[in-house]
Amino acid sequence: MDQLSFLDKVKTIGEVLTGKDDAVTSASGQTSAGQGSAGKQGSAGKQGAAETAGAARRAAFTPPKVKIPGAKVGRVLDGGVPAGDPATAWQRRRDSYRLVSPLNTKKFTIVVVGTGLAGAGAAAALGELGYNVHAVTYHDAPRRAHSVAAQGGVNAARARKVDGDSLLRFVTDTVKGGDFRAREAEAFRLGEESVRVIDHMNAIGTPFAREYGGTLATRSFGGVQVSRTYYSRGMTGQQLQLSSSQALQRQIKAGRVKMHIRSEMLELIMEDGVARGVVIRDLVTGEISAIPAHAVILATGGYGSVYFQSTLALNSNASAAWRAHKRGAYLAHASFVQFHPTGLPVNSQWQSKTILMSESLRNDGRIWVPKDANDVREPNDIPESERDYYLERKYPAFGNLTPRDIASRAATERINAGHGVGPLKNSVYLDFSDALRAHGKETIKERYGNLFDMYTHATGENPYEVPMRIAPSAHFTMGGLWSDFDQMTSIPGLFVGGESGWAYHGANRLGANSLLSACVDGWFTLPFSVPNYLADHLGEELPGPDSPAVQEAIARVEQRTQRLMSIGGTRGPQQFHRELGEIMYEGCGVGRTEESLTKALGEVRRLQGEFWEDLSVPGGSAQVNQTLEKAGRVADFLELSELMCIDALDREESAGAHFRFEYQDDGEAKRNDAEWAFASAWESHPDGTFTRHMEPLEFTAVPLATRSYS
Predict the structure, then answer these.
(1) Contact 405/360 with Cβ under 8 angstroms?
(2) Which residues of 448-477 are buried (b: 16+ CB within 10 A; e: fewer)?
(3) Residue 27's pLDDT is what?
(4) Which residues form the Fumarate reductase/succinate dehydrogenase flavoprotein-like C-terminal domain (predicted)?
């Protein structure tokens, strides 16, 4: 490659060459979603009067080779971001969207899979607009979705305090926190809509914490130096979820949303390359049925459960997104996984999950380990001079509120160096003694009382008297289904929202941006972009129950179910999942190397073979069968983990949470912007091979720079 990086070339060519976005085709020749192709399939990609620099980017981009056997370089993608100032890209795009008349909305059917913050918001908003909406969840009720577990808060660029906050500072923090591996324009959308999110969620019932005078209270989270996180004590996700669920229930009662509870999406219905509905299995009766639709929204969360022991609920899974991926939806940044620095440590091999302690605790808690690796004294017996407050030492500007990827790596380094604490020496201390002395127990209890109670119930220890013990734990996936600026995937008619997507967080998500991105997608993006797509499909008939598209999709589900049931092996899916988690933590965890990833890839492929030869699923499929449910999800995890290892091996740089030990600068991630400043969007093929498609990333408002938090 010559001296100019491809980003420099993009800017140079983009100044003299801009044109309307071209269609981007997959390796099979199918027109991808939202890429401006003529005709109805590419309708969501039309930019109207707004032009994009897509042609310039593709002309300038020289992709690095794929060195992994069975994988190859694919096509250059364009995300459909309008050319020009990224700060106004979303407003200009939204203003160009076509509308559907209120007289015609009832003629369209939309399926929303998942009822967390993104799914419930989208279903409620689209129902309010008059569309016929089907909402699908495998939970007993929509409010049981995993968004309810989020604790700390939701960010907003309201800049209501005199602390120097602004929209640009929000964008800078988000782009920098993600180590420049996300779309800059998406960060602007996130910040712009964040103000509406707080106002809207407050209006529909979320009881945000307030100051004495009645104004909304805020606090700080990692990776920022301002106070922009709005919260509901230590249960922000729960309160946001309850508010969204109430809005959804209103639409259910009005007859505009049909709720499918205890139902799991197992297949995507495709007709002429377009998403036309989903196939679901009733988890009580085992009945398999189809829901045809004009558009499908997947808002089913992330895939952190691939690691077995994670902060996610035990039934959290990636099957809906993986089914879509197998049908042609590209998966972006598969290896970008966040390990939360304040999880509770694993204390037993029989432990099935970890427990998350909110990042908000790092506002008042100080993280440390004994300076002497052989120190076995109780924490309160170790004097201040013999404690290593390693985050404050290494990153004085941010201290204990460094971004999560940095805090987790630092904790892992201290633990691996022998300074870990606790029975298994696998944790570090989070100490509130200074805050308790400064503010008093009642103040700390008011701020974190429910979190302290949770810790006591989980460990039997009193954090008011002794430091908490914390450790990095698999938590959030920045990777997800690739989508364009309209949130449409590479399959026309298939949209994505929340953690199922990829675009906002880059290689590392900032704390409190997860609830924000889910609310932005559900309430303020998809209700605009989905109608824009549907505007060209008025009058189209849905595939009937006997149509080839529906029958083929149902047949695939039935055949896969029968295959899982008929193996007749000796090991249950839980055993395979546990072993997979151990492989992934070891080989594709907080830190990776070419050697560890190559080994993990081989072990994952070995485990795949053993799974399909020795799986045991008792009972039948026409009844409640949680082992069958688990088996299907683990089968998907096994395939997904293979792609995660391939993506991590392929990306020869360190960026955010993707930390390759070969690419570092004194323990800090060392990016290679000249070659890797793009999003990898992977396509899986039936023959077991993979294609890496690429979307170049540009940064104008926040120039590319090495992250520094010291």
Answers:
(1) no
(2) beebbebbeeebeeebeebbbbbbbbbbbb
(3) 34
(4) 577-709
If you write DSSP's letter for every residue of 166-188 in order, what string do you get?
-HHHHHHHHHHHTTT-S-HHHHH
Residue partners of 302: CB distance under 8 A and separation at least 6: 312, 316, 318, 476, 477, 480, 499, 500
**Does residue 34 belong to any structural domain of this protein?**
no
pLDDT digits (tens, 9 = 90+) for 660-682: 999 999 999 999 999 999 999 99
Cα–Cα distance measured from residue 698 to residue 54, given in angstroms and rounded to the nearest whole number: 11
Q: Strand pairing of 109-113 and 132-136? A: parallel
Residue 454 lies in a domain: yes
Would you tell me the crossing angle of helices 167-177 and 184-203 to the nearest 10 degrees? 120
CA gap 357, 454 in Å, rounded: 8
Give the three-class secondary structure for 427: strand
668 Cα distance to chain centroid: 23
Of 473, 481, 475, nearest to 498 by C-alpha is 481
What is the pTM assigned to this prediction?
A: 0.92
Q: Does 407 have pLDDT greater than 60?
A: yes
Contact, 429 vs 468, CB < 8 A? Answer: yes
| Residue 183, phi-psi category: left (phi > 0), alpha (psi -120 to 50), beta (remainder) | beta
pLDDT value at 2 more than 80: no
* Count of domains for the chain: 1
Q: Is residue 277 part of a domain?
A: no
The CA-based diameter of the chain, rounded to the nearest angstrom, is 75
- Record the tokens describing residue 288, joined without a space: 């398999």
Structure tokens given for 266: 């197992």
pLDDT in tens, 212-238: 999 999 999 999 999 999 999 889 999
The 3-class SS string of 57-81 reads: HHHHCCCCCCCCCCEEEEEECCCCC
User: What crossing angle do the helices spanning 236-253 and 184-203 adopt, rounded to 10°?
Assistant: 70
**pLDDT, mean over the chain:** 92
Q: Would you state the pLDDT for residue 11?
A: 36
**What is the rounded CA–CA span in Å between residue 457 and residue 563?**
42
Q: Mind listing the pLDDT tens digit for each residue in 442-488? A: 999 999 999 999 999 999 999 999 999 999 999 999 999 999 999 99
CATH number of the domain at 427, please: 3.90.700.10
Q: Is 380 inside a domain boundary?
A: yes
Q: For residues 300 and 316, what is the distance between their CA atoms, to the nearest angstrom?
A: 9
Q: Which residues are catalytic?
A: 404
Is the confidence at residue 24, as pLDDT, over 90? no
Nearest of 182, 156, 184 to residue 170 by alpha carbon? 156
- Quote the CA–CA distance of 328 and 273 in Å, as a whole number: 9
Single-letter residue type at 348: S
Q: Tokens for 251, please give them.
A: 């639409």
Burial of 377 (0-12, 13-18, 19+ CB in 10 A): exposed
Domain range for 405: 340-476
Report the phi/psi class of residue 370: left, alpha or beta, with left for phi > 0 and alpha for psi in -120 to 50: beta
